[in-house]
Specification:
Elements (H helix, E strand, L loop, with lengths): L12 E4 L3 H6 L6 E4 L3 E8 L4 E8 H10 L1 H8 L3
Antiparallel strand pairs: 1-2, 3-4
């Protein structure tokens, strides 16, 4: 399973930070944390092609497909 969204081309990011108590007293980093996308493996029906396409996409991309349509979104991403 890939670590990037096929539609939005987004991947994981590094996060981290400081607690408020640490900010108030001294510099003591809390460490780095990798934040992953919410990736879903979806089977999407494209009526224009009359077939199903299986893609690994983020939940944001699922909302984009619901809004703009499967064919337009997947064609813009270069998956069709």
């Amino acid at each position: 399973m890939p670590n990037t969204c096929a539609v939005t081309k987004r991947g994981s990011i590094m996060g981290g930070g400081y607690s408020n108590r640490t900010r108030a007293t001294q510099f003591n980093p809390t460490g780095k944390v990798r934040k992953h996308l919410n990736l879903q493996k979806k089977k999407i029906y494209v009526p224009e092609l009359k077939k199903h396409v299986i893609v690994t996409i983020s939940t944001r991309a699922i909302k984009t497909i619901n809004k703009n349509g499967a064919f337009a979104t997947l064609k813009k991403a270069g998956l069709i």
